[in-house]
Write a structure and sequence with these properties.
By secondary structure, this protein is α/β, with parallel strands linked by helices. The chain is built from 17 helices and 26 strands. The strands form six sheets. The chain has a nine-stranded mixed β-sheet with strand order 2-1-10-9-11-12-13-14-15, sandwiched between helices. Strands 16, 17, 19, 20 and 21 form a five-stranded antiparallel β-sheet that branches. A hairpin with a 5-residue loop joins strand 20 (about 405-415) and strand 21 (about 420-425).
């Protein structure tokens, strides 16, 4: 795999005199300087720094005994746990490239991912055995003896990770790695075909680790992790916490009440959350009874956090909010300091240090400030490319007049007079009605002003007269009895003529990905069946 990575172009801007302190090397010192400090907490208990590093080193040494070479991939299919985190670290210490897999993927997609990433090791948790059993006869690259359980022996090898480790030494010998070596492959959340494998090298992660420490993810951090480790959302905060000697509290599955209990019990200082989690946590009836005074900052990513939710969280939940906008691929990076910018809460902030944002039209021409177009960006952290997919990598590139490579986001947005970025819609989700571009976020914002509306998604549906027209899919607040027509009338009275919504339909809930993104394609499918969109 290393040769494959080296063959990929490096689009990230150069940094003069750049040095690297690989995570597999850096964390070794913590075993001695703070060995008795808690490193990880999961539902089974606590793991000290000395215990975590000893276990991770044993995993690394065993992987190498089994033939792992620098750059080789190791795949894991598991919910968040201390053991899974130590497997991740052990892979990095050994010089391997970690491939965390989604337990929410279909069997077909998961089997394709495992084959696509060229892994020769697969570790599976007990909670994912049903999914594993659905696909294990389709796996050709991972031999049965290297299909190992994390907390179960019900796998082809008949071994859990402790059996596999045996009496392997915890001798400290982290592999030598370079900035160009692969760190991880994160698979996109595609629902059809094979999701794309996003390859990050050490350059990408090292620069991110340093930058995120500025958000307080340091040795004093107690970080409550409630999103899955196969998501870059999680890694953005979890890896810097470990890199700097902090503590991770790992939730195997998110539950709003349990989140609050853990936050109070462990005096949590930081958490990376997605927008829907903010709403669910603050909707807990006993939210205000919990002591959350230890919080210093909460981060948010994966989708824009609505200004109304920010306002409520800033009022009721101690600590600042830092909203982060970016792609798993990198290249685009903005941040919003909510405490410092109370008039900009509907934006996703300004470009981070070392990044640049531009707006382009359909022909790839740059647009002036204030005009709406596709967001493109370049930053100090940029992926090496989509693994095995050179053409798809090339398709997302935009070259500036100065000859710099930018990544296309697929998001539509605009920059205001102060350089703050506003996201309006995914390009593919934009509604074109009667020749006018309609951005769902504008309509959703108005619908959310109605006192009965708890959640909403606006999609385009077929219209014989207009080509397509907006439809509002609404989740009402508990106990509310307002009709679809009354909510429609409320919204259309506030919208311009070209924006007006054709109808409102109630839903019990909206389908979301595991990191909280509304699955609009799934919502649109019944309306567009047999038609082109």
């Amino acid at each position: 795999m290393k040769k494959t990575v080296e063959a990929m172009p490096n689009y990230a801007p150069a940094i003069e005199h750049e040095t690297m302190d690989p995570i597999g090397h850096r964390i070794q010192a913590f075993a001695h300087s703070q060995g008795n400090k808690t490193a990880l907490i999961d539902e089974k208990g606590a793991v000290t720094w000395a215990e975590m590093i000893s276990r991770s080193n044993r995993i690394a040494n065993r992987l190498r005994e089994d033939g792992l070479q620098t750059g080789d991939t190791v795949a894991g299919l598991s919910e968040n746990s201390a053991e899974y985190t130590m497997l991740y670290l052990g892979t990095l210490i050994a010089g391997g490239c970690m491939v965390p897999l989604s337990g929410m993927a279909s069997g077909e997609a998961l089997a394709l991912m495992i084959e696509d990433c060229d892994t020769r090791f697969l570790f599976v948790s007990e909670k994912n055995l049903d999914l594993f059993n659905e696909i294990n006869d389709r796996l050709t690259r991972v031999t049965p003896e290297r299909r190992i359980g994390l907390d179960t022996r019900s796998v082809d090898s008949g071994m859990d990770i402790s059996d596999w480790l045996g009496d392997t030494s915890d001798e400290v010998r982290p592999a030598s790695v370079t900035l160009d070596d692969p760190f991880n492959i994160i698979y996109s959340s595609g629902t059809t075909g094979t999701p794309k494998g996003i390859l990050h090298d050490y350059r990408f992660r090292q620069r991110q680790l340093v930058r995120l420490a500025n958000y307080g993810l340091d040795g004093d951090c107690i970080n409550l992790v409630s999103t899955p480790l196969y998501s870059n959302t999680t890694l953005v905060s979890a890896l810097p916490t470990i890199y700097n000697g902090g503590t991770l509290i790992l939730m195997g599955k998110f539950n709003a009440l349990r989140f609050l209990e853990l936050a109070q019990e462990h005096k949590v200082t930081h958490a990376m959350l997605v927008p829907v989690q903010y709403s669910r946590i603050m909707a807990e009836p006993d939210f205000d009874k919990f002591d959350l005074s230890s919080f210093k900052a909460k981060l948010c990513t994966s989708a824009p956090l609505r200004g109304s939710v920010i306002a409520e969280a800033m009022k009721r939940w101690p600590g600042n909010i830092r909203e982060v906008y970016g792609l798993t691929e990198g290249g685009i990076s903005t941040t919003l300091d909510c405490a410092a910018n109370p008039t900009k809460w509907d934006s996703v902030g300004v470009p981070t240090e070392g990044s640049e944002i531009r707006i382009i039209d359909e022909d790839g021409k740059e647009l002036p400030q204030g005009e709406i177009g596709e967001i493109v960006g370049r930053a100090i952290s940029m992926m090496r490319g989509y693994y095995h997919r050179e053409q798809q990598t090339l398709d997302m590139l935009w070259t500036s007049p100065e000859g710099h490579t930018f990544y296309r986001s697929g998001d539509m947005g605009r920059l205001d007079e102060d350089g703050f970025l506003y996201i309006l819609d995914r390009r593919k989700d934009m509604i074109i009605s009667g020749g006018f571009n309609i951005y769902a976020v504008d309509l959703e914002k108005v619908l959310l002003e109605h006192p009965a509306v708890a959640d909403v998604a606006v999609i385009g549906i077929p219209s014989e007269h207009w080509g397509e027209t907006p439809l509002g899919l609404v989740v009402r607040k508990p106990g509310m009895t307002d009709s679809e027509q009354s909510i429609l009338d409320f919204a259309n009275a506030k919208l311009g003529k070209t924006q007006r919504i054709a109808g409102v339909e109630f839903r019990d809930e909206l389908p979301r990905s595991t990191i909280g993104k509304v699955l609009k394609r799934e919502l649109r499918e019944p309306y567009w069946a047999g038609q082109k969109k």
